[in-house]
Design goal:
Length: 299
């Protein structure tokens, strides 16, 4: 288990981390999300030893993260760190050897990941000749080639086309199923919701929401989405413990408190005109995200 406990980090007057706590268990796939500047990258860098926190601890399986542990971590930085003129396969073998793998194992692992990520035909190409999407795949292979027990990926889906997103998603699910602890940051909240078992929302250097994605959704306010062929002013008369949280393309989304009967809201809407569309559902992760950061994000 990876444990970040009470991490603090300042850069001059800028507070990057303010007593941040996070745990990621073996076999867990955790989405690490938050607005720009929330502290996600700094926390990840502290976890792999690239940045030293001013206070707090980072442990793996109850012990400080030593050099031996770092060799078992797969890290994908947001700013990619590949050697542009080095050939793909040569580079992956080199990186695997740096992590302590024997030459034969490094070569076998390289062949496996090039094939798995659809890069076998480009094994002898310099990285700089690849598309940005394929460079991203090589960077993922570099994080995987040494069989890590912990994967820390900073914006791994950034700039990928839908096919590459599917490949990346499948690989992360496979690694988690194999017992690897996986944590990745992303601004694609729908993807995080569909892919991850757990999520941590960070704001101003703190984790402000953490838990199982399905449990968080079940515990959140239900959303009633209503489209009416009539005056949308009906929503001004909503009962207590309800709130309009979105208006989009003629549809009004109302957050319902736990004790609110959706039928009461529907009666108000129906009095304004025929109902065109009605849907009652759990909140999306993007809505829980906005709720957690409601004082800082625009509605």
């Amino acid at each position: 288990m990876l444990v970040l406990e009470q991490l603090q980090r300042r850069f001059g007057d800028v507070v990057a981390l303010e007593r941040l706590d996070l745990t990621v268990a073996a076999g867990e796939l955790c989405g690490f999300v938050g607005p720009n500047g929330a502290g996600k990258t700094t926390a990840m860098r502290c976890a792999v030893g690239v940045t030293t926190p001013d206070a707090g601890t980072v442990t793996w399986e109850g012990r400080p993260v030593s050099l031996a542990v770092r060799r078992r971590i797969g890290y994908m930085p947001e700013e990619r760190g590949l050697y542009p003129r080095m050939r793909v396969a040569e580079q992956l073998v080199y990186l695997a050897r740096l992590h302590g793998l024997p030459a034969a194992t490094a070569a076998a692992n390289t062949a496996h990941w090039l094939d798995r990520l659809g890069l076998a035909a480009r094994r002898d190409s310099p990285v700089e000749e690849l598309s940005l999407g394929n460079q991203q795949r090589v960077q993922l292979a570099a994080a995987l080639v040494h069989d890590p027990v912990l994967l820390i990926l900073d914006e791994p889906f950034s700039g990928l086309d839908p096919i590459a997103v599917d490949v990346m998603s499948e690989v992360l699910l496979e690694r988690a199923s194999a017992g690897v602890a996986v944590v990745f940051s992303s601004h694609q909240l729908d993807l995080v919701e569909d892919l991850c078992r757990s999520v941590a929302v960070v704001d101003a250097g703190r984790v402000v929401l953490r838990g199982d994605v399905r449990e968080l959704k079940r515990a959140g306010d239900r959303r009633l989405r209503v489209a009416v062929d009539g005056d949308p002013g009906w929503a001004a008369a909503l009962p207590v413990d309800t709130e309009v949280v979105a208006r989009r393309n003629g549809e009004i989304t109302v957050a319902l408190g736990a004790e609110v009967d959706p039928g009461v809201v529907l009666e108000l809407a129906r009095a304004s005109g025929p109902l065109l569309h009605v849907r009652l559902e759990e909140p999306r992760l993007s809505e829980l995200f906005r709720d957690a950061l409601q004082d800082r994000l625009p509605r």
